[in-house]
């Protein structure tokens, strides 16, 4: 079965605007890339992984962090700091809503590390990448084709 590669221009623009606004509001491009990469790992989105791994490197994310991101909980404190861990835990909770909600303790930990506006932008960023992942995975868009 062939799948469409078409994405409505207005839909693409809306998703791009949400992503850009959330990243700007978060104010930490390296952390934003860790978040979108982790969600993309969970969603098996090769296109987004390919794109955001390159962007992460450009924003100074270390190769060690990229190599250990899939196992961030086990990587130890020397790899991801508390703020990054809180953002990654929230990313996983929002991306994989297994109990129908984000656990209070995960939200509370994130709220300790992000003021309300940044927390709102972090949540928006997680929602945005999950939207992109689903749009790309549903159509099975392969990696490549992205140029910054």
TrEMBL record:
Lineage of origin: Bacteria, Bacillati, Actinomycetota, Actinomycetes, Kitasatosporales
Coiled coil, from the record: none
PANTHER family reported for this sequence: 4-CARBOXYMUCONOLACTONE DECARBOXYLASE FAMILY PROTEIN (AFU_ORTHOLOGUE AFUA_6G11590) (PTHR34846), CYTOPLASMIC PROTEIN (PTHR34846:SF10)
Domain of life: Bacteria
Pfam families, per database record: CMD
Protein name: Carboxymuconolactone decarboxylase family protein
Carboxymuconolactone decarboxylase-like domain segment(s): 10-92
């Amino acid at each position: 079965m062939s799948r469409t590669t078409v994405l409505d221009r207005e839909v693409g623009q809306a998703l791009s605007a949400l992503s850009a606004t959330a990243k700007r509001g978060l104010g930490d491009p390296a952390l934003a890339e860790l978040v979108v990469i982790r969600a993309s790992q969970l969603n098996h989105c090769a296109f987004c992984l390919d794109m955001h791994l390159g962007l992460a490197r450009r924003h100074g994310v270390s190769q060690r962090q990229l190599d250990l991101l899939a196992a961030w909980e086990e990587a130890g404190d020397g790899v991801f700091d508390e703020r990054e861990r809180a953002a990654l835990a929230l990313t996983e909770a929002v991306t994989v809503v297994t109990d129908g909600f984000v656990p209070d303790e995960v939200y509370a930990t994130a709220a300790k590390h992000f003021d309300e506006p940044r927390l709102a932008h972090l949540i928006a960023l997680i929602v945005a990448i999950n939207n992109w992942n689903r749009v790309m995975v549903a159509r099975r868009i392969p990696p490549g084709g992205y140029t910054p």
